[in-house]
Amino acid sequence: MSSEAMQIFPVSRWKIYLILVPTFIAVAFISVLFFSFFSFVSIWWDYSWPLDLVAAPETEQIKSCIEFGG
Hints:
70 residues; mainly alpha; 81% helix; 0% strand; rod-shaped
């Protein structure tokens, strides 16, 4: 066998890097976008949703004071 028959598709190292490096950059960029989006949603949810739950104990205390006259 000749050496040409052994290497059917010769791929040099720089061609592999030309494929892998942009792929890693794209994956990292998409990961940062998803992380920042879900972080924003999580922070927004924490600050907007439990506002009525935080005020609930105070409301119950006010109701009990009104019912019992002080």
